[in-house]
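Why do we bother with holo predictions? Because pocket geometry can differ from the apo form. Keep that in mind while you read this record for adenosine-5'-diphosphate.
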Amino acid sequence: MDTRAGPADRRSGRSIRVPAPVGVRLTTLQRLGATGGIAAIVLLLGLLTYAGLSSTRSARETVIRTHRAIEATQAVLQDITNAETGQRGFLLSANERYLAPYHQALNRLTADTALLRTFAGTDPVQTSELDSLATAVQTKVAELGLTITIMRTRGPAAARAEVDSDRGKRAMDDIRGLLRKIATRQQTLLDQRIAESDRNYNLAEVFVVVGTTTAIVIALMLNTLLTRFANEQADAANRLDAQNRELADTNHKLSDLTVELELQNQQLQDQAVEMESQQSHLQEQAATMEVQSEELRATIEQLEHQTSLAEKAREVAEEATKSAEEANRAKSLFLTTMSHELRTPLNAIGGYVDLLALEIRGPLVDAQREDLRRIKKSGQHLLSLINDILNLAKIESGQLDLHVRDVSLAVVFENVDTLVAPQFNSKGIAYVFPQCDPMLRVRADSDKLQQILLNVLSNACKFTGAGGRVTVDCDTKGDGDHGSGAMVSIAVRDTGRGIAQDKLEKIFEPFVQIDRHLTGVSQQGVGLGLAISRDLARSMSGDLVAESVIGVGTTFVLTIPRGGAVSGELAPSPTRASTDSISTA
Ligand code: ADP
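The structure, written out:
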């Protein structure tokens, strides 16, 4: 596998492994076959064909020479015959004119004899026969010349006698015999050479056919090999192309990645700069915090010091609280004892006033009767104050006896109405009788509940002018009968002078009175009613709160736990409630 790095790699500094194209590798034998095989075959074929053709041509030339040699034997025979014919014509006619063919034949005979020796070859047998032929020809030519010379010199008879000697005939027979031998020999050679030429031709044909077939087979093999090679090259080229495309794609992605990395690098550098500045800022803050830490340490030391002081103070305060609780218990005991001690003589004073008013001790004048009435009223007022103080003392000391049970609100309101209705009537205030569910019951001490309602309604009457209006509404909150958190709220609304917001809590503190000078002397209390009422409400798991708007009116809301279903309880005595609870009467 080859590994090459592209431009994107150099930029990113990374190297990508690019697979090298899968090429086709030929074996050495295949390469040799592909490159030299054909050439060798063609060369061999050429050589063999050339050799065949060459031997064929050589055989053909030999055949031609043989034909020429045979023709030359015939020409020599013809020349000799023509020379003999001319010699016979001269011998018969004694005319020199008839010797023309003789002379022409002799001229051709020399050339034809030379030709025959040229074409007959160098075969020793042949050469020997040619030598014999030459001798026979010379003999014949000499016999012809001799007869002609005799004819000319001695006459026809001498010439004919020479002819009849048959020397010429024997020479002629020799010539014919030798020429026949030479022709036969040449014919044999011709046949041999033709046969050899045919063999060479056939061999050349075989070479051509075999060589051509072999060349075709090798060409087909090479064609197959080259086709396969070309196909594999094409596949390799395709794969290379795909790899190139993939590489280009990878390069493109790498380029994008590089840009992104550069961006991130830039961001990181920016962040690093920012972090450096934050670090220096943090170092400054750390220095500041160290200073602050020092200060804090000093402060902690101070606080520890103060805490130890506070601890000591708390211990002192606990001591003081214990002392105060002791003092409070002593005060409550004192108040209880004193109230009891005060109520006995006051009741005695009341009894004696009644005794005098009944004129049992003697008749009274009007002025005395008026004095007795005032003494009686003041005594009752004093008795009421003493009762309030006694109640508060009992509540604070935890000695209050509560008889909590299911109480019918209808019965409670009936008792209360009997006591408050005359007050509203005498003062000209519209009093709307409470519109509550007659079946509604609460969990409370009936007397204490009446005491709270009497106190709130008496205040409403006391602090509302003539022509005003007082209403009472009931509401239920939470779940049904005895459900946890089920409460009944009773709201007493008046249209009186109202209470400032910042005083709404203070009025529940003992002995607190607001705008006392606005209240008539006859109606002034001591500021214990609301304190006792809230304590009583909370003792019965309820509460008493106030809402008010100056000049518009005040609403006191009493909440008490809701009771169960009606079971025929007896109404508490209104007389008792009135004597124990009305603090402003
Ligand atoms: P007392 O009525 O004896 O003064 P309370 O504890 O009952 O004492 O009341 C405390 C003070 O609360 C009253 O002096 C009065 O100033 C104020 N107050 C109570 N009820 C009302 C009301 N309905 N309207 C206006 N002021 C009220």
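The chain is about 70% helix and 10% strand.
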